[in-house]
Amino acid sequence: MELYNLKHPSQKVTFTQAVKLGLGRDRGLFFPTLIPVLDNMDELLAMPFVERSKQILGAWLAQELGQEMVDKLVDNAFNFELPLVKADDNRYCLELFHGPTLAFKDFGARFMAQCLNSLATEDKITILTATSGDTGAAVADAFYGLDNIEVVVLYPKGKISLLQEKMFTTLGDNIHTVAVASDFDACQDLVKAAFEDSDIRDGLHLNSANSINISRLLAQICYHFEAVAQFKRVHNSDPVIAVPSGNFGNLTAGLFAKAMGLPVKRFVAATNSNDTVPRYLTLGDWAPQATVATMSNAMDVSEPSNWPRVEAIVEAMGWSLSDISGVALSETDTEAALSQLYQGGYLSEPHAAIAAQALSMTMKPSEQGIFLGTAHPAKFKEVVEACLSIEVGLPPALETVKDKPILSVNLPADFTALKAHLFATLSR
Ligand SMILES: *Cc1c(COP(=O)(O)O)cnc(C)c1O
């Protein structure tokens, strides 16, 4: 697979290089030179998820990695259910939250972890990342127990929920967690400083495993196929798919799927009041505003990092941006959407509820739609309980970590202290 840097098209890399580098020169995103098209769609849609995913990812990667390697990566990464659940007469939810950390990020993070573990040829590599909550859990869990990789996660002490903290600080083994006595920005600054320090970068073979890694997007293509496959078992028509969006990786993956030949009527980009994209789609002006905090906090992004890839797909395919609908919901509308789903018999959470409502606002009466369920309702327990006046039980994944001890080391927001800690813990 050949990819090029969207900022410097002359920089070309293989998939293996793109996975390891994350970003290209000047922080440019890697984008495939060629999007493979699958011509056996009916046959593909009839296959079980894992088998189909091997074919989809094989179309991108088999030439470079060999189909056997692709099969192994998929088998190790995709080992949980993703049911399409009927929410009401014309809307379905593809539930992507039955993985180990109860969020759709498990798909991308687990596949990326398998890729790095299998493709990195150096000695051990060290993943260093900062989290304000969810990403830390998905990354830590995805890399837990892998031989060639040590993971260090920094997070702001006391600034994330206890349950969130328990999900990634109780694992041990190759997962090292550091509670920093400051805020998220300070954690990010420490990570940045570590990447700029050549002793750490070279001595510990640092890698960021960040969310714009191309391996994550390829993995996410597979569940868009699964959404349509399950839908087509009940309907003859093609679905509209609504994507709750923050950094727009999820939508990018959907557009790649469509470009590969997946029959999707159109996509709806749904956001909270961080509405840079919906405003851009209706007014044509790219005008990010200051990020505001909302109850769908995983979508609190005003400068979505994957957007250049969305534009690149649209251009490569000769599509128009106007084929994508944009919808932004206020906090009040989000609560109303969540209540409406619940009254119809479907328990959801704020992110998915926004996408569900975006479907209702943009579908014609004859159309059917799928909204992507990106997180388990229990992950947003407080908001869901307050909005619906109900109690939300904890699923087994959260129940088992609840009473485990936190293994984090406490550090001040001080680079020298972090550097000493990294070498003391990870030197070998
Ligand atoms: C990350 C996240 C999103 C946004 O996904 P993007 O790919 O960044 O657009 C939506 N919902 C939840 C629950 C998330 O964790």
From TrEMBL:
It is an enzyme of class 4 (lyase). Keywords: Amino-acid biosynthesis, Lyase, Pyridoxal phosphate, Threonine biosynthesis. Gene3D superfamilies: 3.40.50.1100, Threonine synthase, N-terminal domain. Its cofactor is pyridoxal 5'-phosphate. Residues 10-78 form the Threonine synthase N-terminal domain. Pathway: Amino-acid biosynthesis; L-threonine biosynthesis; L-threonine from L-aspartate: step 5/5. Residues 94-359 form the Tryptophan synthase beta chain-like PALP domain. InterPro entries: Ser/Thr_deHydtase_PyrdxlP-BS (IPR000634), Thr_synth_N (IPR029144), Thr_synth_N_sf (IPR037158), Thr_synthase-like (IPR004450), Threonine_Synthase (IPR051166), TrpB-like_PALP (IPR001926), TrpB-like_PALP_sf (IPR036052). It catalyses: O-phospho-L-homoserine + H2O = L-threonine + phosphate. Belongs to the threonine synthase family. NCBIfam families: thrC. This is Threonine synthase. It comes from Shewanella algidipiscicola. The gene is thrC.
